[in-house]
Amino acid sequence: MRILIVGGGYVGLYSALRLQRRLKAELKRGAAEIVVVSTDPYMTYQPFLPEAASGAISPRHVVVPLRRVLNRCRLIIGEATSIDHARRTATVSTLASEETGRTEQLTYDELVLAPGSVSRTLPIPGLADHGIGFKTVEEAIGLRNHVIEQMDIASSTRDPAIRDAALTFVFVGGGFAGVEALGELEDMARYAARYYHNVKPGDMRWILVEATDRILPEVGEEMGRYTVTELRRRNIDVRLETRLESCADRVAVLSDGARFPTRTVVWTAGVKPHPILAATDLPLNGRGRLKCTPQLTVDGVTHAWAAGDAAAVPDVTAEEPGRQTAPNAQHAVRQARLLGDNIAHALRGEPLETYAHKYVGSVASLGLHKGVAHVYGRKLKGYAAWFMHRTYHLSRVPTFNRKVRVMAEWTLAGLFKREIVSLGSLEHPRAEFELAAGGKPPGHPKGSS
Ligand SMILES: Cc1cc2nc3c(=O)[nH]c(=O)nc-3n(C[C@H](O)[C@H](O)[C@H](O)COP(=O)(O)OP(=O)(O)OC[C@H]3O[C@@H](n4cnc5c(N)ncnc54)[C@H](O)[C@@H]3O)c2cc1C
């Protein structure tokens, strides 16, 4: 009996943890095996990415090492490139595949498909070349380094065109990821400016572009309006009912006619299901998500299960019929646990449980000591919401080890000053040595200075 889990994010981690526990006896006597295929050896706690970008949490602490926590599972670092469920076979490309030119064919008895989502982009000129995503820890750290580097560029020139472009930061998309990332980074940059003799907070221009007439729909209309007021109070240019039309030649052109020369366009305008789903023989809905039942099986198929961002799970708590659960961590975690339980039930011939969870609301951080929340009908703003954000996510981040490390970092950050260093050279670790060895000078300041 082999259970194959594709994806090592929220659903992959939590369903594997549940199965490890539920099938302890079967795993011990070799009657069952859990194989997790994940592109990364870690699970990313995405709600902490904005704080990783601002430097409040170090990157290693927003990820959970899968090998350590899934110690009774077999972990394969690689990418499932297609799935033939009729033949119960997944094709997996591993790190070694690049060298051997061969992919692995993995057979299974039960499939859990949890590849999550990817950024939903539009064919906007220049976006593919200049846009920056905000879904992974690498992107969060890259963006932090990039923002500080722009401040360094602005500080090292008197050319107003270069300075203005470097100090203009455009964020597209007013959901969780965009608002929190902008709120945290603006706060960090404002703080960092005190260490620059010629960059003042007022020299920077932070712009949030949102196509609809509201931001942060997750916290409700009233709190969304408060967030707009709060961001504008901080001099952030919030443009509602506005779209990005182009960012070619490093100029952001908006649908309201505004043009901003900029070196930073962060794209957080929603997600779409992972493209791997189209490379399977499983049923998808019109939006490309896997059609699922409220018991988290793939609709009309046996031995296939799904949950999280990739799965269209009927919301049995909704008043209007036909609604599906939203792609967020609140559902992903709860669905993953139930999915693990249901697989164990199915293997033992027991009846399956139904997924029923009513969305309880959300908390969002808008920078240090600033936040907004609407949870269990209670609305909070400012410090109280920020504090709730921290305590809630501290209680949610997986493993005791990570909780202690994050807590320690927050405590130390309260005692010492914020880190404002950019480790941009991490992205070019061989630059120095290549130069020393007489190689081609790379296109990085270290190579050109
Ligand atoms: C910046 C940010 C902040 C957020 N904040 C919140 C929040 O505050 N509250 C909230 O409720 N939600 C939040 N979310 C949303 C939440 O993180 C997602 O809904 C949740 O991660 C979905 O879980 P998942 O398991 O479906 O996907 P993921 O957690 O994304 O996991 C999918 C995993 O599968 C891997 N994978 C993909 N394809 C393959 C393949 N072919 N083979 C092998 N592995 C593959 C991916 O690399 C990834 O590791 C946030 C998201 C972002 C980006």
TrEMBL record:
InterPro entries: FAD/NAD-bd_sf (IPR036188), FAD/NAD-binding_dom (IPR023753), NDH-2 (IPR045024). It holds the Pfam family Pyr_redox_2. GO terms for molecular function: NADH dehydrogenase activity. SUPFAM superfamilies: FAD/NAD(P)-binding domain (SSF51905). Gene3D superfamilies: 3.50.50.100. Keywords: FAD, Flavoprotein, NAD, Oxidoreductase. It comes from the Bacteria. Belongs to the NADH dehydrogenase family. PANTHER family: NADH DEHYDROGENASE (PTHR43706), NADH DEHYDROGENASE-LIKE PROTEIN RV1812C (PTHR43706:SF45). This is NADH dehydrogenase. It comes from Streptomyces nodosus.
